[in-house]
Amino acid sequence: MARAPMVRSSLLLAGCLGLAAACTSPPEPADEAGGTGTETGTDGGADDWADSLEEDDEGTGETGPEVPLGPEVIDYETCIVDPGAPTASIVGETPDGPFSGQYAYFGWLTCEGEPLSPTLVVTETPEALAAAVAELPRGAQGGALPLPSLEWVLLGNCNPENGWTGKGGGGINLRTQGGDSLGFASFSLIENYKLFDPVDPEDPPTMHGTIFFGDGWTLEGEFTAVYCGALSYEFEGC
Q: Region Disordered: what ranges (predicted)?
């Protein structure tokens, strides 16, 4: 099923803003936490990053150093649909019944074609993603929506200065044939690999972390998300 952009973006925005204050710095500098695939050179928190984007105190209109949020060019074509062995174990109960997330992927939430945040998606089988990719219109730039699946974005929850690694919390959507359910979870992005590099299908980017749900959900587990450009999509109204 293809994505319904306006509805989906609105729900994700609500989830991002709802717990943005939960954002914290990584427990360790990025180079000690397992490597981020890029030299970030900082252990500052999200507030520091946000402050760096403000005008300077003298009102010159200058801003702080540009922080790379993602790759220079979004690759919508490459998608590692079946990475072989399962890449996640996120298992438990949801308001819609049991969910057993065995395969994790990520794409990019974009703004006018530029990367804004990683978007992470967990499915029960690779076939769910394959079916969603097959239903995309010819020439579509992303927008695949596998069902059932979990999706969350790091925007407002983790610090891009640290290669998006760190601890945060936010809204997560469970997508099913019957509709969406919004839950809230805490998560850690422990490390990433080649996140900012051009995508190599033989050695694709990955993001590794953990997630823990509360508020009536019992899902928890670990994931290593592999790149799928078909999961990328434009954030409406950015």
A: 25-71
